[in-house]
Specification:
alpha/beta; TIM Barrel; nine-stranded parallel β-sheet; 10 helices; 9 strands; disordered N terminus
Length: 298
């Protein structure tokens, strides 16, 4: 992107940020994103009027009998038996030495085929999680990420397949630039469903990143993972009140556009360096943010 183009884009984003967030749109469909099956064992979760869940798994996790496959079995089988609709997002391998390597099309296909064979009831899929974040090997290769989307569409033509699932950042123009290259790589294929993790907006009470993505793509956008941070050092020290406030803004933001069709709250279980849990580390003790979620989804 040229300096002139970047300045022009920044000016547009500044104007968007100044716009108020509308609150008159109908509420999206709500879901919960997590990888811990504890939530299916407590009425704190099963009592909520939520029937959609999201799960993230390595694209090749099912090829070997390891902990990740066992964890997927527990979570996905519990969700299926209890009647939840499941969205699955694939991501980097966790095999030694593979986390930052882009798989070939054949390797990616082999992993995805094994997954679909083992869990045929999963019919909503995202080809790669947070493709523009450099925890993923796709962050510098929108063309490769676009290729995974095209591959997944072919592997499951009857599935709901999401295109780019991106993370918002403090510099939205970078996300927009990534999405532009991604769409150029798709050629004459024009997706109608996209994914966004708008943590930056939610926790900074902003709307710039969300509006930037809505302006960069056509079709519906699902907020497939987002939530108020209880703790994420060094910028976000532990705070129940700040998390609660961010959670309230999250729901307001989710209603700001009719194109934001779903919101998956992350996460159910707290703990760890990145903690957005609406319950504590056991998954059994609710935090104030839980009450926000319960009120908003009811």
């Amino acid at each position: 992107m040229t300096r002139t183009s970047r300045l022009a884009l920044l000016a547009v984003l500044a104007a968007l940020t100044a716009l108020p967030v509308a609150s008159a749109c109908a509420a999206p469909i709500y879901g919960m994103a997590d990888e811990d099956a504890t939530m299916f064992t407590t009425s704190l979760f099963t009592g909520l009027p939520v029937k959609h869940v999201r799960y993230t798994v390595a694209y090749d996790a099912i090829l070997t009998d390891n902990f990740e496959r066992q964890q997927a079995d527990v979570f996905l089988d519990a969700a299926h038996k209890q009647g939840y609709d499941i969205l699955v997002s694939f991501e980097h391998s966790r095999e030694p030495g593979k986390a930052q390597k882009l798989p070939s099309t054949s390797a990616y296909s082999a992993g995805v085929k094994a997954f679909m064979k083992r869990y045929p009831y999963v019919r909503e899929l995202s080809p790669w999680d947070e493709i523009n974040d450099c925890s993923q090997p796709t962050c510098h290769s929108p063309k490769t990420a676009a290729g995974y989307y095209l591959t997944l569409r072919k592997l499951c033509a009857s599935c709901t397949v999401m295109a780019a699932e991106v993370l918002d950042t403090a510099t939205p123009w970078m996300t927009v630039a990534y999405l532009k290259q991604y769409q150029q790589a798709l050629g004459d294929v024009h997706p109608t469903l996209w994914g966004l993790h708008n943590y930056s907006d939610v926790n900074r009470h902003s709307s710039a990143g969300t509006k930037a993505v809505l302006g960069a793509v056509k079709g519906d956008v699902w907020l497939t993972e987002t939530g108020g941070l209880y703790s994420f050092l060094p910028g976000f020290p532990p705070s129940l009140s700040r998390q609660k406030s961010a959670e309230q803004w999250m729901f307001k933001l989710a209603r700001s556009s009719p194109r934001l069709q779903r919101l998956y709250v992350y996460s159910w279980t707290g703990g760890g360096q990145f903690d957005a849990g609406i319950t504590n580390a056991s998954g059994l003790v609710p935090r104030p943010a839980y009450n926000v979620v319960k009120q908003q989804v009811s």
